[in-house]
Design goal:
Elements (H helix, E strand, L loop, with lengths): L1 H12 L10 H15 L3 H5 L2 E8 L6 E2 L1 H12 L7 E9 L3 E11 L2 E11 L11 E12 L10
Length: 153
């Protein structure tokens, strides 16, 4: 289902299917997303979203806007016992939009597969360090039997 959604988003956003060289701004945003997740810092995570950004968790209602997104991440982070990292499997970048596909390992055996839809910000996000923001974040839960990400990933 996520694959079909990703394809639909790709066409709607005008992303090309061919490989496009990764942009330093997108890489910076992904690194800051990973670092804020690792630090369990909901306010830093929420600051990476567009002011009207949206999170669509699996089997839940959607959350729109940085204030609601921060509240969601604060709730999610309080149940983490052993955050294991973020692993990105694909990045595609267009002129004004991009997407990132990966896994957020909330515990060594529990992951969230995610798709981050990025857009170039008309205004810098609260962090002010990149011209890219997260427009939408879509995830699903999965169990990862026997997988342990490398330290520092």
């Amino acid at each position: 289902m996520i694959a079909a959604l990703l394809i639909a988003l790709s066409f709607q956003l005008g992303l090309t299917p061919q490989h496009i060289e990764e942009d330093a701004g997108v890489n910076d945003l992904v690194k800051r997303y990973s670092n804020a997740q690792r630090a369990n810092d909901a306010s830093k995570v929420a600051a990476l979203y567009a002011f009207d950004g949206m999170v669509i968790p699996s089997d839940e209602r959607s959350y729109r806007g940085q204030v609601r997104i921060e509240a969601l991440w604060r709730r999610e982070m309080q149940f983490r016992t052993n955050f294991a990292g973020v692993i990105v499997s694909e990045v595609k970048i267009g002129e004004d939009s991009a997407y990132v596909v990966g896994n957020l390992f909330v515990r060594p055996t529990e992951a969230r597969r995610f798709v981050l839809v990025l857009e170039r910000a008309k205004r810098a996000p609260l962090s002010g360090k990149t011209d890219w923001v997260i427009a939408a974040d879509i995830w699903s839960h999965t169990t990862v039997a026997g997988f342990q990400p490398a330290p520092g990933s």
